[in-house]
Amino acid sequence: MSGRVPRASLDADRAICAEICRSGGLRAREIARRLNLDRTEVNRHLYGSPLMRELCYQDADSRWHGIVRQERPHFGLGEFAGWYGLVRDFLPLSEEEWLAALSEGCRNVGRGLSDARGLFHSFRDCREQILSLIGDLREMLGESCLDWELAFELRLKRARHVRIYADVLLITEDRVFALEFKMKDRIDPEEVLQASQYVPYLEILFGPDYEVIPVLVLTRERELFRFEPIGKQDMVLPVCSGDMLFNVFDEYLGFLKH
Question: Which of 154, 207, 235, 251 has a CB 3.0–4.6 Å from the CB of 18, allowing a cystine?
Fold first, then answer.
């Protein structure tokens, strides 16, 4: 992804989008007053940010509305995902039922389905990793995790030639785990960067009440879990093998400490 957007601009997008999703039916001057911003600045974000234009819409009365609700359940999120639902909706589906639904959803959001690089094999591998994770979570958390939300193949447009993808989002009460799956057994710094680069845009999508946690998952590795630096930034993100994904969730949710 190219064309880095300044952090201040992304923060303003997030605040404006959250205000719209929180209240709904707001005119630009009302948004400006609530956020203590200049109306011209608000309009610049509403009309000039491609992602804002995708997540919000204006009605005939010049009032702005959000497409995705920024609380559970996230009504509207399915419009941007190949498959979206609760964990309890996902578990009863056979592999073929899920794959058929995912494929239809991908077509609806404009996700290409060429299998030249083993796309469907990667879909199946991803599904197996999530099933294993949910099994581990149920052992530790019981049935409460069945009400978490799952989104596969999230697709957002930020500009004409830029796409924001997320392999899987697992959404708890106050966190969004953005899981980037690679069928590899070695850490690639470029893939660490790729796993992190969508975070600011997911923060806009989900709002200030959610922490977005990017994770790189290497499904052909075993017994790997560590934090890796993100490019040249003074930041790190968790990288793990599929069999250690459960430990990433424990790192942030702390259920093994109870």
Answer: 207
